Structure formats: C-alpha cells, structure tokens
Amino acid sequence: MSSEANPKSTTYAAAGVDVEAGDRAVELMKAAVSATHNSSVVGGMGGFAGLFDVSVLKDFERPLLASSTDGVGTKVAIAQAMDKHDTIGYDLVGMVVDDIIVCGARPLFMTDYIACGKVVAERIADIVRGIADACASAGVALVGGETAEHPGLLGVDEYDVAGAATGAVEASKLLGPEKVRAGDVLIGLPSSGIHSNGYSLVRHIIAEAGWGLDKHVSEFGRTLGEELLVPTHVYTGELAALFDALPEAVHSVSHVTGGGLSANVARVLPQGLVAKMSRASWEIPAVFNVLGDLGGVPQDDRERTWNLGVGMVLVVDAESVDGVLAASPGAWVLGDVAADDGTLATDPYYVQGAKGVDGGAAILQ
C-alpha cells in the first residue's frame, strides 16, 4: 500500500495550540512568580523541575514531609462567566496549603497546573498572578507550573486549575487527634464566604431561579457574581504565627472544606470524643441564607455542603483559649470537646467516622 502526502501544510497552530501565546503568558507572570521565591529556591523559573533547598531539615530530629493537592472545582465556571480570573488563584492556594498547615507543618513550596482550551496570555497570567500573590501571603514559594492547551477537549474560554504543595513538620510538633482531650475548647475562624466548596449546588440554585451573575443582591451590597467570586481566605500565614507564639496551645485543626463543618471536625478527633458545636455562637453570613432559601435547601444539606461562615476550627487547650482568641482576629468559642457516651448518636446531626477516618464525632446543636 502507498500513502500520499497531504498537500496542505499542517502546523501545531493549525491544530489549535499556540506556543507563542504560552511564551507570552510566561513573560507576563514572571515577576509575580519570582516575588514568591526566597533563598531556598534554586535556579528560578524555566527549569524542567522546581528546585528547593531543604538543608533546614538537617536540624530536625525527625522531619515529616506533608503533601497536599487540590483544585477549585466548579467555581472556575463563575470566573469564566464573569471573565475575571485574578482571584481564582487564592482559592487554589487556600485549598492546598491550608490542608498542610492544619497538621502543624509549614508549607514550603507549591506547583500549579492549568489546562485550557486556548491559551490567552493575559488570562493565564491573571490566574498565575493570583496564585503567586496568595503564595506570597502564605510564605510559600511557587517553584513551578504547567499550562496545557487542550483544543477540542475544552472550549476556547474554558480552563481548570490544580495545584500541589509540600511542607515539613517536626514529628513531635505534629498536630492531630492523638493530642485532643475531653475539655478542650473549639475555636472558630471566620470564612470569607463560600470559599471553594459547594459551587455545583450554588450554580444549580441560581440556574433554577433564573438569577444572572449581574443581578444586584441587596443582602450582599453587590452583584451575585461579585459575591460568588470572593476568594478563599488563606489561613496559613496567621496559623503559622499562632503556632510560633503559642506552641502548646493548639492540639488539632480542621479545615472546613467539602462535607461541611461536622464531617471535617469529626476527622480530627479521636474515637470516644465528640465535638459539640453551638449554632448560636456565630452569625451565618448572608450568602448562605440567601442561596439556601432561594433553593429551598434543607438545613442538614446546607451544613453538609457549605462552611456556613466557619473556615477553620481549632481544638485548643482550655487554659490557652484567651491567648488564642487574642491572637486570632474574628475568632470565637464555637463549642467544646466531651466524652462521647452514646447519648447523642441518635441525633440526625450527629456525625462520626467521616471522610474515611474512623475517628471521633461532631454535632451541631
């Protein structure tokens, strides 16, 4: 058999991949990325791999590496619809590095990955600048990343983002369920809004209601789209400072992400203990009530899906409560930890063994 050459000239650009646009994006983001680098970053940008000097670990008695990876979920659809891309990076960084700080580890460096249907240099640069700014706020070096153009798989205005980070902690300073005791106090840290979880429910609600993102909502004092794009609060910097200032105060920390408050708190408690949290201890931000009421979302589903204004929960030694509250703006006493005698297990809001962890229990009362 023989084959005939195609008389047409077929290039990578004709297939939908613009290498030059990718190069322009790198130039636009270079300054923001470089601003996250510290003396531990080796080689700067442009290598096949990011290099980070971990000589500091030689001073650890038993160093543990902590790793986390995540994305932003369908919140990117809101950013794409509004053509605003400079805040989604905060969502990505918060979802990744705040999963590392909760065990007492300090995030050291992060990498990102952006898949898109078409590289628009300014859009990619906006996304990465947001990632870099959030990394800088958390003291984390952004040491590498990848932008992949996938024509035919994603639309020209579609993209998704993901990231991964690595941190380290001295084994003796590891936070977790084994340090929690009955009598510990639960302290809540406020969220900045919905953060990055539950947006599939949000998008379903507003689609069913026929609300546009440009709709001004009086309870928000801004448009619906502006409210939904409020970036995730990144807690790493303030928690690192708290751990340094009060090294024995915090026993365990829960990052309230997918699954809601009770499920995420239960996973940082040991078997035999229950976190009893008071709904009356904080005011739920308007966005959750407006959307919940608009969609007729039952209370238990709201609590299983959204953070409802609680971004982090610290499990604190009772004698350290005043110090932790003073060091944590906006924090409040959410509840306490008690022995689980089984009397609460029949309550429909009781959660035990959540997120694949056969640990403690939690309940909102």
UniProtKB/TrEMBL annotation:
Top enzyme category: ligase
Protein name: Phosphoribosylformylglycinamidine cyclo-ligase
UniProt keyword terms in alphabetical order: ATP-binding, Cytoplasm, Ligase, Nucleotide-binding, Purine biosynthesis
Family classification: Belongs to the AIR synthase family.
Catalyzed reactions per annotation: 2-formamido-N(1)-(5-O-phospho-beta-D-ribosyl)acetamidine + ATP = 5-amino-1-(5-phospho-beta-D-ribosyl)imidazole + ADP + phosphate + H(+)
Stretches assigned to the PurM-like C-terminal domain: 181-342
Database matches in InterPro entries: PurM-like_C_dom, PurM-like_C_sf, PurM-like_N, PurM-like_N_sf, PurM_cligase
UniProt GO molecular function: ATP binding; phosphoribosylamine-glycine ligase activity; phosphoribosylformylglycinamidine cyclo-ligase activity
Gene: purM
